[in-house]
Amino acid sequence: MKVKLKHPSLEGAFYFASGNSIEEEPQRSKSILSLFRIRQKLFLIALGLSAFVACKKDYSANNKASSDTPGKQDKAKVSAFGPSVMYTPAAADYDPGALYARAVQLEYSGTNNGKMYATFERYNPGARSFPIYESTDGGVSWAKITDITDQVNGWEMKFEPQLYELPQQIGSMPAGTLICAGISSPPNNSQTKIDLYKSNDLGRNWSFVGSVATGGVANSNGTEDPVWEPFLLVANNKLICYYSDETDPAHNQKIVHKTSTDGSTWSAAVNDVALGTTLRPGMPTLAKMANGQYIMTYEIVNASGLPCHYKISSDPESWNPSSSGTKINNGGSPYIVALSSGKLVMNNYNSGNVYTNVTNGTGAWTAVSTPLGAGYSRALVPLANGELFIISGGMLTTRNNITYASMAIGNYCKFTNRANGKCIDNYGIFSNGADVVQYASGGSFNQQWQIQTAGGGYSKLFCRTGGKFLDNMGRTTDGSIVGQYEDNPSQNQQWQIVDAGSGYVKIINRVTGKCVDNGNETADGAPMKMYYNNTSFNQQWKKIPIN
């Protein structure tokens, strides 16, 4: 979010990066800083921010015999943790101390899957860098391992870092490579560059890959031409970097993207949201939805209430740039993720809540309270165990710690068959080896499955009742029955969920390569089977998130 200063006495004292990054000149004035804080608080109050979605509760009913006792639900999940403190600024650090935290959990790194890495803006005296923290226990505890420093410009790594794990090879960088894009800027903030760095040793060492974009002075007063707020995504066999761009005189600020096949050489910028000389769309984040489409969220500064908007596209390289999109709520600095169930979760600067949506971005967004208070550009990470990790760098107007927490978010979905409309169901039987069947769609927890990351592109399907996982039971022939079994490391429980087109997926076993199939049965209670991969609708399933 960019906050413009209109008071002439402040123009010479500070430079700004995205309204959050306050870089003081050598002669720092505490009285001017206090005046800035007061003016910025008044500005935020004047926005009149308010969430328009009321918090809802989920009262799920069973439609047949089952045992939905709390003791049997979520058995395989790690308990939520936090709020906890990752980092506290040193006494010598200047305000805000820390800001703009980001985190990632590894999914494509073999035996290291599940490890997590985090970074943030740190406001220390001297040359600034992006600190890198590691967690080896799923985000519960963290330790600093290194810093990303500027290796090519003789500048500092200052603003808006974004961490990402490559899901596939890009150029010479294999799947599992940890990358970080962020703003490099000299001590006087006279230039801005979005530079990309990589690590192939779990964040211990980092090397420069390439520069995505170059801009002018790190000042958001509308008269300079900086670049801000990178966000990374791999799609169409390319690495895509979305960012906020003030270099075009026809637009106050716009959202653009560039693509690369190696991380070093980048395409020309393509407009994604470009709304003229007054409005300032910025802070893009994206997620791939259950239906295969992409959703982009962003703020629009200088619009009433500082709204958070979204757009939807089947191609993440093609957006209607002249459209302002659809409003979700007010608050600015949105961040969006898609959970494994297909449920969307976003948050904004206005509230400590997150907002969920189970209809691929359209329709209602439901407010859900979280363990952490509101924060500027608070980041979200879907965890392998089905929970949601939240990391915050605090507010624009305070001295901040980096804090984090995880929470259960109701990350369940149903699988509805394309041929007969019935759902995969554990039938209310919870013993090891029990058959998994099909049943008419209803509100039973027996039909609700949590997709937990197993690494390497595979997942485990955990039933909400009984605490068992979908399992091929060691069976390998066509027509063999699919069962359920307690959690274990066997690949019999690992499945690849593959897009089948038209909003449907296939569920393919890692060991046999066979697909979950209704066996051409139509009756309630008929057991689910496995068959070789084919074009039959019997093995195509619609993944429907549960609110």
For the termini, the CA-CA separation is 30 Å
Shape: globular
Number of domains: 3
Kindly name the structural category.
mainly beta
For the secondary structure, the number of strands is: 38
Which class of the largest domain in CATH terms?
Mainly Beta
- Order of strands side by side in the largest beta sheet? 3-26-25-24
Tally of separate helices: 2
Tell me the helix content: under 10%
Roughly what fraction of the amino acids lie in strands?
A: 35-45%
Mean pLDDT across the residues is: 87
CATH fold assignment of the largest domain = Neuraminidase
Most strands sheet: 4 strands, antiparallel
Based on the coordinates given, report the CATH architecture of the largest domain.
Answer: 6 Propeller
Q: Output the radius of gyration.
A: 24 Å
Q: Which ranges are low-confidence, i.e. pLDDT below 50, for 5 or more consecutive residues? A: 1-78
